[in-house]
Structure formats: C-alpha cells, structure tokens
Amino acid sequence: MSAEGDAPRFTMLGGVNQVGPDGLAQCYAYPEAHAVDPRSCWVRGNMIASIDGGATSGGKSGDLGGVGDHALFAVLRGLADVIVVGASTARVENYSGVRLSATQRQERQHRGQAEVPPIAVLTRSGCLEADATLFHRTEVPPLILTSADAVSDTRARLGALADVLDASGSCTDSVDLRVALDLLAEKGLLRVLTEGGPGVLGMFTEQNLLDEMCLTVAPALVGGNSVRIVTGPAEVHTEMQLSHVLTDDEGCLYLRYGRRNPARCGEAL
Ligand SMILES: NC(=O)c1ccc[n+]([C@@H]2O[C@H](COP(=O)([O-])OP(=O)(O)OC[C@H]3O[C@@H](n4cnc5c(N)ncnc54)[C@H](OP(=O)(O)O)[C@@H]3O)[C@@H](O)[C@H]2O)c1
C-alpha cells in the first residue's frame, strides 16, 4: 500500500445538518429490539467533562452543562427504561424522580415503555435519608440496589418508599453489577442509562459492562482536583467506536461512542 494509503484520514466536522428535538432522540435511539438480547440490558453511560477532563466544577457536575447538555440529558432519560446512579451522586446532586414532557410520555407509550422510568440507586450501605427528594419528589418509587449485608435494615427504613433489592453476588457487602443488571432485566428494564458517578462508571468499565458512552465536552477548563468521569482501582483498555459528534451554539461537543467489540449484546451501534 502507498504511503498515502497508510496515512490516517482526518475529517473536518462541519455544521451541515441541524438536529432538532425529534432528531436528537433519533440520534440516541437504543438499538432496535432485535439487536438487544431480550434477556440482558443495554447499558449506556452519560457524563459531562470539561476540556481538561474534570467531571465536576465546585463539587458538582451541574455547573459544567449548558442548555444543550440539559436538553440531551432529558432526551436520554426519556429513552431509558431505568436510570442507574451511585448513592454518592444521588446525595451530592440531590436527585429526585425523572420529569418528562407530555410528548416524551406519548413516545414512551408508543414504544411500550412505562410512562416514567424509575431511578435505581446503587449503595453498599443503604444509607439514604428517608426524607430525601429521591423518595418524595417523584412519580414512581425508586429502586434501591443494595448489598445482602444492608438489605434488611434498608428495607425496614425505606421499604415503604422504594423497591429495595439485594443485588449482592458472592460478596455480601457489595452489589454485583451483573446481579443488579439481571434484576433490572427481570423487571423488563432493559434500556439502562447510567449517569455515574465516576466510581460507579469505574465498576461498569472494569467489568466491561458499558455498551456505549455518551460524553458531553463542556467548553471550560476547571483545573484543580476535579475527578475524571471514570475512577477506580483497576485500569482497563476497552476499544470504543465513534458513532457521532454533535455540537451546539455554546461550543459543547456531544460524543456518542459504542463498544468496538460488543461483548454481551451481539451487535454494534
Ligand atoms: N460529570 C458528570 O457527568 C457527573 C455525573 C455524576 C456524578 N458526578 C459527580 O461525581 C461525584 C460523585 O461520584 P463518586 O464517584 O464519588 O460516587 P458515585 O459513583 O456516584 O457513587 C459511589 C457510591 O456508590 C455505592 N457503591 C460503589 N460501589 C459499590 C458496590 N460495589 N456495591 C454497592 N454500592 C456501591 C457506594 O454507596 P454507599 O456509600 O451508599 O454505600 C458509593 O459511595 C459528585 O461530585 C458528582 O457531582 C459527575
């Protein structure tokens, strides 16, 4: 092959196509039912990072995102069967239930989904306050996926407010993500959206359970000690494949990557 043939090819991304709200939902549609193993979940991560890779500004992710990111955040929630989040993020970001527009509800009905997806919180300890907005500012009760060691106490405190499930595997003091995903699949919650945080995404990444990753790059530098969007003790190398890049008037980039070698669900994006 010629030297030119071997050379990497670069493409200048140009703003040729405008993507409206309907188009946004189409850009992020989960794989067709036939592409998803009906017994297992399709797991999508959605995170925001600054240009220098910070996952937070002032301790939260909220200040990084502008109107475009908020719009995408809402679209992704509208497409999911369940939103999985770490207990720390639920506490820090003061999570409450998912709010959807009338149009999103109609579209969900059309796709055979429940009107509103629940939030599922991963927690070893089960330490969530009973008066948290997670339990009270919501149309549907959240799921609490906790450890065998914590499940009885958590169910006693929160069982009237949430569906508390033992998602432990062989280690009784933590949640096994595969067990957690199987529990969600049993409930028909196959289109999973995880909003992190970095610790939880680290678990998904380490176990090769992320089918795709959506990343907003915010046009900001944060410096300091802001964590990355994925943290954890184990380093892995999972090849991902770019599906699309969008941008908006604020200069955010919206990247969608699928796993290059689909390991569980049989088909790439
Ligand atoms: N940039 C972004 O897009 C983005 C998104 C989300 C969050 N954030 C930021 O990230 C920070 C929080 O992230 P984080 O990494 O500290 O926490 P996290 O991933 O949200 O949650 C960690 C918590 O998950 C639970 N957990 C972890 N491993 C577990 C296991 N094996 N089994 C059961 N439960 C387990 C534990 O809860 P218990 O302590 O209850 O046992 C742990 O404290 C916040 O500052 C938030 O603002 C940024």
TrEMBL record:
Pathway: Cofactor biosynthesis; riboflavin biosynthesis. It comes from the Bacteria. Residues 42-253 form the Bacterial bifunctional deaminase-reductase C-terminal domain. InterPro entries: DHFR-like_dom_sf, RibDG_C, Riboflavin_Biosynth_HTPR. SUPFAM superfamilies: Dihydrofolate reductase-like (SSF53597). Keywords: NADP, Oxidoreductase. Coiled coil: none annotated. PANTHER family: 2,5-DIAMINO-6-RIBOSYLAMINO-4(3H)-PYRIMIDINONE 5'-PHOSPHATE REDUCTASE, DIHYDROFOLATE REDUCTASE FAMILY PROTEIN (AFU_ORTHOLOGUE AFUA_8G06820). This is Bacterial bifunctional deaminase-reductase C-terminal domain-containing protein. The lineage of its organism: Bacteria, Bacillati, Actinomycetota, Actinomycetes, Mycobacteriales.
